[in-house]
Amino acid sequence: ILASEPFTFLVGENKKKFTVHAALISYHSRPLGAVVNKHLLEAKVSCLLEDVDEDTFVRFAQYAYTGDYFSANPEIVLEKAQHTTQNRSPVLQKSETTGFKSQRKQLWEQFTRRDYIVLSSPQARTKQEPYHNYTEVFLCHARIYMFAEKYNIEPLKALSLHKLQQILIHYVIYKDRIEDFVSLLRYSYSLPASQGSVNSLGLLVTQYAACVVEELGKSHTFFLALEESGPLGKDIIKQVLWRVV
Question: Of the N and C termini of the chain, which has fewer Cβ atoms inside 10 Å?
Answer without folding.
Answer: C
